[in-house]
Amino acid sequence: MIPLRIKVDANADEPFVVRLRSFEGSVAGDIPIALDARDVVLERVSDAAEYRGEGGCIRVHGIDPSQIDGDVLLVNPHRGSADRLVRASSPHNTFLVTERCDQLCVMCSQPPKAHHVDLFAHFEAAALLAPEGATIGISGGEPTLYKEELLNFLVQTMGKRTDLRFHILTNGQHFDELDMPMMRSLERERIVWGVPLYCRSPEVHDEIVGKQGAHARLVETLGFLCRAGAQIELRTVLMKRNAPGLTALARFITSTLPFIQTWAIMQLESIGYARQNWQRLFHDSSAEFDGVGRALDLVRSRGIEAQLYNFPLCTVPASYRHLAPPTISDWKRAYLDECRDCTIKDGCGGFFEWHPKKHGYAKLGAQS
Amino acid sequence: MNVWPLKFRETPDGGIVFADDAGGFFKSDEGFLRRYSNDSLNASDLAFLRDGGHSFGKEFDLPWTSFAYRWSRRQSRPQQLSYVILVPTLRCNLACGYCQVSRASEAARGFDWTADTLRDVLAYLGSLETTDIKVEFQGGEPMLRIDILEEVRTFCRSRFREAQFVVCTNLQCLGSRELAFLEADDTFVSTSLDGDRATHERQRTHESVRTNEFFDNLDHVVGRFGPGKVSALPTIDVDNPPDFPALLDNFENYGIHSVYLRPVNHQGFARKLKQGTNVLARWNRIHADFIDLLVDRNCRTGRFMEEYYFSQCLKRVLQLGTDNHVDIRNPNFFASDYLVVDHDGRLYPTDEARMQSRIGRIDLSIGSVTDGLDLAKVALLNTSSLNNFDPDCIHCVYQPFCGTDVIDDVSRYGRVDVPRPDTWFCGRHTAVFDKVFELIYRRDEAVRQSLAHWAGVSSWAEEMAPAHS
Lengths: 368, 469
What we know:
The complex is a heterodimer.
Chain A: E1 5-10, E2 16-21, E3 39-45, E4 49-53, E5 56-61, E6 72-76, E7 81-86, E8 93-96, H1 120-128, E9 135-139, H2 147-160, E10 165-169, H3 180-185, E11 191-196, H4 202-209, H5 214-227, E12 231-237, H6 246-256, E13 262-266, H7 273-276, H8 278-281, H9 290-301, E14 306-309, E15 333-334, E16 351-352
Parallel strand pairs in A: 2-3, 8-9, 9-10, 10-11, 11-12, 12-13, 13-14
Antiparallel strand pairs in A: 1-5, 1-7, 2-6, 3-4, 4-5, 6-7, 15-16
Helix pairs in contact in A: 1-2, 6-9
Chain B: E1 2-3, E2 6-10, E3 16-20, E4 25-28, H1 30-37, H2 43-51, E5 55-56, H3 62-74, E6 83-86, E7 91-92, E8 104-105, H4 115-127, E9 132-137, H5 146-159, E10 162-168, H6 176-183, E11 187-192, H7 197-205, H8 208-225, E12 230-233, E13 235-236, H9 244-253, E14 258-259, E15 262-263, H10 279-301, E16 306-307, H11 308-318, E17 338-341, E18 347-348, H12 351-358, E19 367-368, E20 372-373, H13 375-382, H14 406-413, H15 424-440, H16 445-455
Parallel strand pairs in B: 6-9, 6-17, 7-8, 9-10, 10-11, 11-12, 13-15, 14-16
Antiparallel strand pairs in B: 1-5, 2-3, 3-4, 17-18, 19-20
Helix pairs in contact in B: 4-5, 7-8, 10-15, 10-16, 11-15
């Protein structure tokens, strides 16, 4: 698995953001790109890789400098570690802006915590150092619990870096009409809002997210986002509880949510609460795909994009595989032993690193 | 709860199709219609209407917003001018009886772009704001002026970020220079293929030598450049239609799976053709039977073909924003995204408008490459180019899916205010949408297979055709 946190020595009191630059192979003194004040440049490699910049020196342990060239780190000197906020070689970079959440989803992969540390200043610094044209994910917890900070962060970074795009996950519980001017001021083509809706039935949705009235509030927000011209990726994690209602949800999308950019039906990630509740939650779509296929077809027949996220290709009937892009992030993607000689592996996103070896898909390896 | 206004139409099986102004549709029966018109909808009716997006609670709530969104997406948006039909010559090396253009003979003089016209056309193209362009070369037979085609293409490739070219050619004469022109990846061929060999010869080539020329060249182009290079259209004489199974075999043989069945257009020389009475009804029968033939053939062979215009109308019923076909969209404002440059440099809103002017019926030109667009004339034409306020269309269940064609009205009736149900356009499209809805609600596996294919999904299920009783 690709490490997101690495061991670092730094002589400082407070956390800070740096970008690692290697310039390996270039002649000393002939550095081709103008350096930012937050850049540190690789000087030498001994037991650790030593980088030096305007603010001093850091030493990075346990990873080859070629793998982290251009990475943006949030260095925590006291812990002796750094979070790789932006991995320059990856399209999957996400800022976890808070671990607090006002919902308690039965399958939450990142169970919420009460404590919050505001890192927006660091995130802004990191975003400004991201590679040209990067898309940055914003996730939580629930990012809009800090709506004001989030919107300000977007205004700032999108104004200063007109090439950046954002993909923001939100449960849609906190927008109100007063946010409309700010939402409309953001360049809408550069932000996709990932919003979960689990069922057409308010009772089932509320039960899944552990919050009474969540569905009603979400429905209001979806109307708000439509009027704001926002791009919406509607996300439905597939589970035993909501699988029977998939067709009704698809019908609701065609009649009432035709403005979404895409509908993502997502397979379950076996981590956090989902791991604890796996037996109760996991819907084996390899054995029962019919409802998923019908829902996809209904929505797509109306010209609305619908896709399968986190579905290993071999668990999907051949005629639907073009709708299952490899969506599992590189750092948590794994393949099974059985995948070694698979002919469709190249286009397959594989499995979550932590996918259970038991209780998984009944029909793995279906080649046709 | 507020129910959006519903329009309705009886179907041959005794059911009733309903649709709202945003194109949300369903099928129900007389009982529902009575309850709807008497304002006595029951709880089940209201739940169905709510789920289908046919009602709302209050302004700006989600159902209201969704309806507004769907309605606005049903309106064709004016776009940048990025598609031009160029007619570098009116001369042709064929003399088809139904020619829509009143072409000039191959040896005639004064029917080609002059050097000055070419210069002005290029200057005009250079002045367009678009970054991407599609150029369709029409005629006459445009290949007779391959030199002009080359010059235009070279210019467009350097002037625009993306440029695509379609040569509408009868494929009668293909020398090495013409083939070299067609070889480029950005260049495509559109030709006429009227069905089987006998029909094609009867309608177009008239003698076996020329028929051989055409089929040899078609073979050569498809074989050399692959099937994606060539599209073909059959023109159908209602009085003497081709053998349709043979037509489909022939198209499939050339790797062409989309067939756009067009009746002889009521333009140019074709106006002189006597097609007898009841042409519209006979055309509608031919078209509907052809769709049934396709359904059976697709099911039998497992190889799916489509009738292009029917698929387009099906998508307009099912989906928002299917406005890419200029013959069916609403509003259909002129010179907004495409126009025609004639052999003398005059601009026309459509190819049909060019033909009307050519035969001296009415001058529908809207400027020239030297003087630019006559915006006042465009605005005048546009006043009749939408169906939203037509006193007949506003009652029609198919209005959200349908379009307008003011040029066709002028061509046939000499005026734009003929009651809509009396027009060819309305009669033709009512029949096409009747057929679309017949298929959508037919519980027949063969039909569902074809519908799925034409709508671009893996399978077609009952829930795609909402019904309420």
